[in-house]
Amino acid sequence: MAVETRVMNCIMCPMGCELTVTIEDGNVTNVTGNTCPRGPIYAKNEVTAPKRMLTTTVAIEGGALPLLPVVSADVLPKERILDCACYLRGVKVQAPVKTGDVIVENILDLGVNIIASRDMELHEQ
Amino acid sequence: MSQLYDVIIVGGGPAGLSAAYSAWENGAKKIIVIERDRELGGILQQCIHNGFGLHHFKEELTGPGYAHKCIELVKDKLEIETLVDTMVLDVQSNKTVIAVNPEKGLLKLEGKTVILTMGCRERTRGAIRIPGERPAGVFTAGAAQRMVNMEGYLPGHKIVILGSGDIGLIMARRMSLEGCKVQACLEICPFSNGLTRNIVQCLNDYDIPLYLSHTIVAIHGEKRVTGITVAKVDERMTPIPGTEFDIECDTVLLSVGLIPENELSRGLDLDMNPLTNGPVVDQHRETSLDGFFAAGNVVHVHDLVDFVSEEAEIAGKYAALKAQGKLSSDNRTVKVSAIDGVRTCVPQKITMPAQIPADEKIKLFMRVAAPHRKVKLVVKSGDNVLLNRPLPVAKPSEMIAVEIPAAKFNLIGEEISVGLVL
Amino acid sequence: MEFVKSADVVVIGGGIVGTAILRELSKYDLKCVLVEKEPDVALGTTKANSAILHAGFDAPTGSLKAITNVRGNKLYHELEHELDLDIKWTGSLVAATTDEEMQTLQELMARGRKNGVEGLQILSHDEVVEQEPNLTSVKGALWAPSAGVCWPFGAAIAFAECAVQNGAEVIRDCKVLGFVKEDGKITGVETSKGVIAAKYVVNAAGLYADEIAKLAGDDTFTITPRKGEYILFDKTACNSLVYGVVFPCPTKKSKGILVCTTTHGNTFIGPNANEQDSKEDLAVTTNGMNEIMASARKLIPNLPMGASITEFAGLRAVSSTGDFIIGLSDKVENLYNAAGMQSPGLTAAPAVGELIGKEIARVSGAATKADFKAALPKKKSFVRMTPSEQAAKIAENKLYGRVICRCETVTEGEIVEAIKSPVGARTVDGVKRRTRAGMGRCQGGFCGPRVTQILARELNISIPEVLKERADSNMFYEKYPVDGGEE
Fold it and tell me: What is the ipTM of this complex?
C-alpha cells in the first residue's frame, strides 16, 4: 500500500489554508490544516482529478484586432490544459464574433466548448 | 465648440464607465467619457483571464467580459457620450477639459463636475534601480500582456518574472500557455503579493519556482537580455553578498507595483495622499477641489475591479447630485486615519451630512502593511468603537472593506482611526 | 579595386564630433560620406553624457580642450537658431563647501579668464541659495553664465541632417573593416557595405578611434573607456533638487558628480568616473549608483530617490595624450583624427568641425558652396505649441491628434515625421531620441509597443524586425506555431 502525504494550499477562499493531505493508493484518506469543510473537498479534487479553466487567444481575421480572447465554457482536466492551449494557437476565426459564440466545439474531445470572451466586429479597412 | 456637461469623466475603463452609468442613474443629463485608447474598457481588455465580476455582476467573467458588461451599461444612452482615441491634455480648475482627437482636433469641454478615472500605471525598472545593462527584453508585465493578448507578439521565449504580484503571476501562466519557458518568479518580500489562488494555478501548475526574498542584482546582455544575476536579500531587502546565482533568460517581466496615474491631478494641485499616491477623497469620492471627484485605481490601487466599479458608482452618483445642486457642502469634515498596521484607508475624510438619512452608510477600503492571521480591525472615533471586525487573515495584497452604518454616525467625533488589534 | 562609392572625404563615426565635422565639410565643394557602424547616429558617447555646454574654465590654458571648448560654446549660441537646437542657457555653478574649495574657485576663475571665458563671478552663499534654494550647505560658488545644457542626440542628428541637405551622405549600419592604401596614403575605406574610395579620411570613431587609426597605420595614441553612471529623476523632482547646472569642486580625474537639469526639466545626478577595458560594457552597477548618490548628497542631503525614472552609463573616450587629438595624423598623410573627445567634447564639437573642415578645404583647394543651406526647417514639438498651433497642426495632419507617449505628450504625427526625416529614426530608441517618446516617467512601458508598431508600418517591415537600438536588439517575436515552443 502506497501512502503519501502532500502539502497544498487550499484556494477556495482568501484564507489560503495550508493543507496536509494523506493519500493512500491514490485516495485521500485524511486532510488536516483546513479551517472549513471546503478544504477536504478541494484536496480530494486536486488529488484525484484536478481541473482548471483555460483562457487564451485565437487568431481572428477581419476584426479591429488580430486576436480574439477565448475562455473554456467549463473547467478542463489540468493535465490537458497545455494541449488545449497549443491546439488553440492553430485556430483562426473570421470576424464578426459575439461574446459567447462557440469558437471550438468539444475541444480535444474533452466535452467542453471554447467560447469568445468579447465581441469583435467586422473592421472596415 | 464648447458645451456645458453635467459630468466629464476622464478615462473610459471600468471606473469611468461605472461612474458614467451611476451618474446617469442619478439624474445627470449630459455626461461624457473620454478614453485615450482605441476602445473603451481600459486595461481589462488585455486581462483575458477569468476571475472578475463575482462581487459586482454576480458571475465569473474574463477581463474583456467585464469590460463588455460595463460598456453595455453606457451604450445607447442619449445622455452619455463617449470619445475614444482621445487624450486629455489638461484639466483646469474651472472644470475646463482640453483634449485631442485625430478626427475632432483640439477639444475644449466645460463641465459642472469632473470625475478623474485615469487608472494606474506600472512601476518601471528605473524606479527600482535594477543594476546592469540596458538591452531589449525588459518589459513591464502589463506591456508584455498587451502585446501577447491583443497584438499577437511574444516579448521573448525564456522568461523571468520579477515581482509576485497578481499581474506577474498571471503573466507567468500566460507565457507558459503560449509555449514559452518561464524560468523563475522572484519576489523581494518574504511573502508573495499575489493571491494564493494565483500562486497555485499560475506558478505551481507549471512548475515555475518562486524565490521569495530574492531580487535581480544585474541584467546582462548588450543587445537583447541574455540572463540575470539573482541574490537573496536580508530583512532590509539588501542583497546578501555571496548568495548570487545566474539565470539564463531573454526576457525580464517586471511586476513591481502599480502607481495611480495622477499627472492631471497634480496639475490641479489636489491634496494628495503620499501612501496611496492618489488624491485625498471624502466618502463621496470628492477631492479637495470642489466639484472634482476621483474613483478607481487613480485614488488607490485596488485588488478587484469589482471594488473599482463600486467606488466609481459612488463618485458618479455624487457628481450627478452635485451637478444638479443636490449635494450640500457646508458640513464639518472628519479626518480618517490609518494606524496600527493599517497602511492606507480610503476615504481619507468624511463630510458629515447635516441630516443623516437612515440608509446612509460609509464604506471604508483598507490595506494592511504586512500579512497577519486572526487579527481584529477596529474603527474608532475617540473612545467610541464604531466597528470591531475579526479578520481570520489580512494580507497587504487584498483590500479589506467595511461599512459604518448610519446608526453609528452619532458616535463620530473629531476624527476616525482605523487600526488592527493583534 | 572595386569601389561601391567614391567620395572626397569619408568621415568615420556618427557621434556629435563626426556629424559636426560632416556639416562643416558640407559647406565646401566636396563629396562627403559619413559611415556609422550602428543602426543610428549618436549611439556612442553622444547618447549618454551630461549634455552640458561648458563655459571653458576647466581645461589648462592653451590646450586644445580649452580652445575648442570656448570656441564651441560660442558656436552653439549661433547654431542654436540655425539648426533649431534644444538648448537652455542655464549658466553653471561650481559649488564649494569648504574654505579650501573656495580657494579652488579662485583658481578656476583665474584660469577661465585666461581661457577667454566671459562673465565669471564668485557668488556668496546667499546668492547661491537665491538661485538654488536646496544648496543650503554651500559656502559659495563660481558662476559661469555662458554655460548651458543641450539635447546632445538632437544636436548630432541636426548636424547630420544639415549636412545631408547640403549633399553629404550618411550611411548607417556600416562598419569600417580596413583601409586600402597606396604609397602610405589611404585610397579607400573598406566597410561592411563595400569599399568607398576616399581622398581624405576623418577618424571620429569615438571609443574606437585608436583602433581605426591603427587600421590606417597610425598607432600614436590609445583610447581608454571611462565609465560614468547617471540617475535621472522625474520632472516633478526638480523642486527638491536643482534648476540649473551644479558641479562640485573638480578633482584631477573629472569635473565631479553633478546635480544638473536637462533641456526638458528632468534632473540627473552623476557621473562617476571609472576606467575599464571594455568599450561595450555600459552596465550600471550598485556600487556606482551608491557612489553617485553619496556624492550628490553632499550638495543635496535629501535626494528624492523615489522619483528616479532611469539609470544609465556612458563611456568617455580618454586619450593617452591627455588632450584632444585633432588634425592630420603624424603617420598617415591623408588621415585626420578627431579623437580622445572626452568632456568637453560635446561643447567642442562644432569648433573641432570648423578646424578640420577648414583644413581639408585648404589642402584640397575646395571652394565654398554658394548655396549652402545653413538652416534646418523648424520643428516645434506638439507639447510646446500653443493651443491654436496644435489645432492647426491637427487640421493639417490628423496624426498630430493622437498622443502616443503619454508622459511626454508625443503625437503619432511627430513620430512619423521623425522616421521620415533625412537621417530618420529606424529604431525604438531612435524615435525616443528624436521625439522624447519613451523618455518620461514610464520609460516607454506604455508607448514602446506602439512605437514599435508605427516603425514597422512606416518602414514597411514586420514587428519582429523592429529593433530597440542596436543590431539584434529585437523588441518582440512572432508567436509560437502550434507545434513550436518548449518541448
Answer: 0.92
